[in-house]
Amino acid sequence: MRFRPEAEFPKGGSGSPVLDAHTGAVVGVLKSRRAGRDGGMAIAATALRRFGPAYQSLMAAHDRWHGQSPKIGGHNWIERQHQLPGAGVHTGGDQWSPRDRREALSLLSGVRPPDGIRPVVELAKKARGGVAGPPGQLLPHAWRDGHGLLYEAGQPVAAIAALHYLQLVVEYERSRGGDPAPLADWVVNRLQDVPRIVHTVVTQATLPPRLVPVPGPDGRDRAVVRYPRPGDGSTVVIVELEPVCDAPTTRFYWRIRVDDGQDVNEPLHEEQTGEGVPPEQLVRRLRGPLDEVFASVDAPGAPAPLEVALPVDHFDTAVHRWQLTEMARLHHPAYVGVRRMVVLRDLLRRGRPDDTWLERWQATVAAGALAAVRTPPPRQVPRARHFADMPPSAVPVLCRPAGSGVGRRAIGLALDAGHGVALWHTDGHPEHGCTDFCEEMHDGAAALLAQTAGVLELPDRLRRIRDDISGSRNGGHWAEGVAMLYDDPTRPLPADDNGPVDSP
User: Fold this and answer.
1) pTM of the full structure
2) Which of 192, 301, 359, 372 could pair covalently with 117 via S-S, beta carbons 3.0-4.6 A apart?
3) Could you give the CA distance from residue 56 to residue 413 in angstroms, rounded to a whole number?
4) Among candidates 498, 230, 486, which has minimal Cα distance to 364?
């Protein structure tokens, strides 16, 4: 029977597979008739992904069974699929056939599940030539879901895309210390029947940089998302907060831009006139515009980082605690600093970067491993030489706010010395010297930086700690109130073009 407006499904049909007549793919399960109306209803097969680990176990068993089931020539569904218009050619050609798919999914079921959604999305995207998968689908959880993302509008999949994806899965599993030998051997055998260009692309497959694992705190490899750099195709959302001049109380003008890795776009949303927005209303005012921008630029499983540029006097704005969703789902973190990387930038560094800042940043990136430096040194006032003499790998760490007092002087001197990275505590400091919490924060920051193989990893490592804090509800954690300066001069903010104007 076919889904048509006039279709009537008989009683007892529930549970029947719903097939794509073009490719033979099972796309859903018949659920029920529609009372008093034509047609019927079905549940999409992708809805099973909502069951998480149970879905992965079920589909792995499904794929193993089909891979091991008797193949009676001409009398099984795989052979029938070869007769459909969208099935592709027989095994051994440039197209991916139903037999190829059966073997590949069976072998993928024997590979350990991925570490979350991101690896599936990233590997499928690379296999598709850098093009993201079709929008509007439930997020992929299993390796087989990434294989499914290779299909487009019912068309046969090219062998180069499928084999490239399988080889990327092999490389990812090897990077985790696994040995996916059966899948790797099958890919090698399948490559004997493809043109030379396909063989070259597949055998030279490398993981996307953001999936290359690095040693974690427990000594195991752990994939860390590297922060975007110019030209890498990644996207960053930027919020600029500028205090209104001569306002009796603090108020801000704001604008939202997107850095697409090639250029910083003109503001997508802004409020640059009127009285401005008081700090306590900023989040409410920005929710709608930011939600729209994030919906446009976020990739599945890969939320775009958020940069907030503001003057140093307002560096203690705890942006990572902003809740951009007034009523969050139970399974979805409401805090922006838990869901995505959130860093601060110095608004006054707009335009062409000075040589001191640029040279120190380039040296910091080249230095690799980072080291925490207590700022200012115990029982000393901050001095310019403290920051100018720091090696490129040094990151100033303050156990006090950066927007006033000693912290304001210290962070100002750090900026003057060209530092692009710093950590500080936004929630205040005892009036008479440091306490045990200060020591705990410095020890925690030192451990965090010691685990970081380079500055590009630091924002995601801090995000992971914020995620852990959110899950454990640990309000006394050393990093709960910590903010991060991450100011990359190779991606400068656009210069302020507000020149002189005629009066009035």
Assistant:
1) 0.59
2) 301
3) 53
4) 486
51, amino acid identity = F
Of 181, 159, 157, nearest to 169 (Cα)? 181
Omega within 30 of 0 (cis) for the link into 376: yes
Q: Which of 217, 190, 489, 258 is nearest to 356 (CA)?
A: 489
- DSSP letters, 368-393, are -S-EEEESSPTT----HHHHHTS-TT
Contact 488, 309 (CB under 8 A): no
The 3-class secondary structure across 216-283, one letter per residue, is CCCCCEEECCCCCCCCCCCCEEEEEEEECCCCCCCCEEEEEEEECCCCECCCCEEECCCCCECHHHHH
Work out the number of other CB atoms within 10 angstroms of the CB of residue 235.
Answer: 18
Q: What is the phi-psi region of residue 301: left when phi exceeds 0, alpha when psi lies from -120 to 50, beta otherwise?
A: left
Beta strands 252-259 and 17-19: pairing type?
A: unpaired
Q: Which tens digit of pLDDT belongs to each residue from 393-421?
A: 999 999 999 999 999 999 999 999 999 99
164, 126 in Cβ contact below 8 A?
yes
